[in-house]
Amino acid sequence: MNADKNLILILMTLALFIGATIELSEGSPYMGVVLLLTAVGVISRIRLTGKQDVQQSKLYLSIGVLIVVADLLYNFRAGSDLGTLDSMVFFFGLSLIAMGTDKPQLSHIGEFGAYISGIFTVLFVIFYSIFGALNIQFLYFFDHYLVLMPTVLIIKLMGVPVEVVAIQTVELSGVENLTIIIGGPCSGLYSMFLLIGIVVGYSRMEKMKLNKTLYLLGFAIAVAYISNLVRVTILYLAAYQYGMETMMMVHTHLGWIIFALVAGGIMYIMDLKR
After folding, report:
1. In degrees rounded to 5, what are phi and psi of residue 45?
2. Fewer CB atoms < 10 Å away: N or C end of the chain?
3. Which ranges of 79-144 does DSSP label H, i.e. alpha helix?
4. What are phi and psi for residue 94, nearest 5 degrees?
5. Other C-beta atoms within 10 Å of 235: how many?
6. pLDDT tens for residues 66-110?
7. C-alpha dihedral sign at 239, 221, 31, 83
8. Residue 59, helix vs strand vs coil
9. What's the pLDDT tens digit per position in 14-41?
10. How deeply is 163 buried, as exposed, middle or buried, from its count of CB atoms within 10 A (0-12, 13-18, 19+)?
């Protein structure tokens, strides 16, 4: 029973931390701070015993502090807000700090967070930075053929007037005429990267077999893709019924809520598959 309770609390902590990073980078800073404080409160209720896989290390603590300080200083000097990549780098630094503490529950969650944020950062750099530098148009084709076109078909079947005007752009006529760009967070790749990090981190920490890990990776990617189609469809409907302002509010908060539910479900399945 204690293990089940710990799993639930760990799921809540990860959902709160990920929600906080998304709110801080794309939504409300105040909501982000509230989520962070709530996550800290949840962590204090986790009780872990026994030997931890990740040993307490001053090296982790020092590197984590350097990463957090460097990330904050860079954005302060550049006069910019924390973006998605900045938030994940910041999350990675905090995770390393947690790994270097003498608190077993913090160390355990810190290791998990390091896997999630580290894998997200690597995949983000590959798909968004390296592909961009090499002029590889993967993201444009993914957004158009795997996100925009399927969701446009869905809402057309619902009777919503919408027209594709560019590879990542649609025009929608509702309470107001809107031009909506499908790209960036709307592609769903961010959630996919995070779920990949969750599966890899959990499988490594729990010593899962490779075939089960690959199965769960495929399952997580499929669920992330379908969930994003649902999210984008809801955004279209919100814009059609209530206008751009309401759509943007839904856009800010809906993504991480759906992600938290999906991530929690996948982690529960992973715990059953151990």
Report:
1. -95, -5
2. N
3. 84-99, 104-124, 131-133, 138-141
4. -65, -35
5. 22
6. 999 998 888 788 766 667 788 788 889 988 998 888 777 678 778
7. negative
8. helix
9. 667 666 766 665 666 667 667 767 776 6
10. exposed
Alpha-carbon span 64 to 85, nearest angstrom: 16
Is the backbone of residue 103 left (phi > 0), alpha (psi -120 to 50) or beta?
beta
| Token pair in block for residue 255 | 């993504």
Kindly report, residue by residue over 233-262, the tens digit of the pLDDT: 999 999 999 988 888 888 777 877 787 778
| Rounded Cα gap, residues 220 and 94, in angstroms | 25
Is the pLDDT at 193 greater than 80? The verdict is yes
247 in Cβ contact with 238 (< 8 Å): yes
Q: How far apart are CA 138 and CA 185, in angstroms?
A: 15
51: confidence class by pLDDT, cuts 50, 70, 90:
very low
